[in-house]
Design goal:
Arc Repressor Mutant, subunit A, alpha+beta, 59% helix, HTH_ArsR_DNA-bd_dom, Metalloregulator ArsR/SmtB family transcription factor
């Protein structure tokens, strides 16, 4: 994961509604949820959910699969783990100024 894709993922999660949807989908696991089920859990209109889900899908955090007339939404756990790993990859590594940084 690079800075651009990490920024896209974090921006998508930086909205209260999208973060709430994403956390619900994390709890749902690999079975995922369709828009109607998400709406029931969160008391949100389908149009609102569709708008926010598109942002999560565009960021690669959520995948959608058509099953008949329904679209099942699932977290892409690889992307989720990559995002968390990006944030923590240099944890406690230290920060030192080089001569190039000081110039």
């Amino acid at each position: 994961m690079n800075h651009t894709s990490a920024a896209l993922s974090l921006a998508a999660l930086g909205h209260d509604t999208r973060l709430t949807i994403f956390r619900l989908l994390v709890r749902a696991g690999n079975d995922g949820l369709n828009i109607g089920e998400i709406g029931q859990h969160l008391a949100m209109a389908a149009s609102t959910l569709a708008y926010h889900l598109k942002t999560l899908v565009d960021a690669g955090l959520v995948t959608q699969e058509r099953q008949g007339r329904q679209i099942v939404n699932r977290v892409d756990y690889d992307v989720m783990h990559q995002t968390v790993s990006f944030l923590t990859s240099e944890c406690c590594a230290g920060v030192k100024l080089t001569q190039e940084d000081a110039a």
